[in-house]
Automatic annotation (TrEMBL):
This is Amino acid ABC transporter ATP-binding protein (PAAT family). PANTHER family: METAL TRANSPORT SYSTEM ATP-BINDING PROTEIN TM_0124-RELATED. The keyword rRNA-binding does not apply. The keyword Transferase does not apply. Keywords: ATP-binding, Nucleotide-binding, Transport. It comes from Marinilabilia salmonicolor. GO terms for cellular component: membrane. Transmembrane segments: none annotated. Residues 2-201 form the ABC transporter domain. One of its GO terms (molecular function) is ATP binding. One of its GO terms (biological process) is transmembrane transport. It comes from the Bacteria. InterPro entries: AAA+_ATPase (IPR003593), ABC_transporter-like_ATP-bd (IPR003439), ABC_transporter-like_CS (IPR017871), ABC_transpr_CbiO/EcfA_su (IPR015856), Metal_Ion_Import_ABC (IPR050153), P-loop_NTPase (IPR027417).
Length: 201
């Protein structure tokens, strides 16, 4: 389970959110929604310990997030950021960097489910569209077989057909907890739980 208990996040520019509390059961599919600037991406970074809240507590997989537990917590998580900037040039190199090169067949199967040809695995990222690159990276990250999957704006570069394919893949991850952030109404509506940021009262 993942839980936020009265978490407040502040930057030098001001308060992003105050007293945010929610819980996510293991295996749930959850969408973080809200307007730009309400802290959707920050929630995903807090879960990984990359952003420290001003106050409140966070638990992930039965562990209270802190200096002594953050390494173990991160080992449970596969994360795909919205802006993908990688020190590798294609999917093949990415699997080697993440030590999952033995799972090439799994990655190619996932790519097919996401509407990509197998040859995209070795095509240079700089020759792909944003949506193609995004789906290759998602396929590689899912092959890590982590218990928790965090997707930051996974629909941002996808057309409607690609979004439907990704929804089908995510829905099929029966034993995985998937938390995504998105502006996309249909994506949010398809999730089992919604956490809305920036809502007063």
């Amino acid at each position: 389970m993942i839980s936020f208990d009265n978490v407040t996040l502040k930057y030098s520019t001001g308060t992003i959110f105050e007293n945010l509390s929610f819980s996510v059961q293991a295996g749930s599919k959850v969408c973080i929604t809200g307007h730009s600037g309400t802290g959707k991406s920050s929630v995903l970074k807090i879960i990984q310990g990359y952003v420290k809240p001003h106050s409140g507590s966070v638990q992930v997989g039965g562990m209270k997030l802190g200096r002594d537990t953050v390494k173990d917590i991160r080992s449970q998580i596969a994360y795909v950021p919205q802006n993908i900037n990688l020190p590798v040039s294609n999917g093949d190199e990415l699997t080697r960097m993440l030590n999952v090169s033995s799972k090439r067949r799994d990655v190619e199967l996932l790519m097919g489910q996401l509407g990509l040809e197998k040859e995209m695995f070795v095509r240079p990222f700089d020759e792909m569209s944003g949506g193609q690159k995004q789906r290759v990276v998602i396929a590689v990250c899912l092959s890590l077989d982590r218990d928790i999957v965090l997707l930051d704006e996974p629909t941002s570069s996808l057309d409607d057909d690609a979004i439907l394919k990704l929804l089908k893949v995510v829905s099929g991850l029966k034993d995985k907890t998937v938390i995504s952030s998105s502006h996309h109404h249909e994506w949010g509506a398809a999730m089992e739980q919604e956490v809305r940021l920036g809502v007063q009262g």
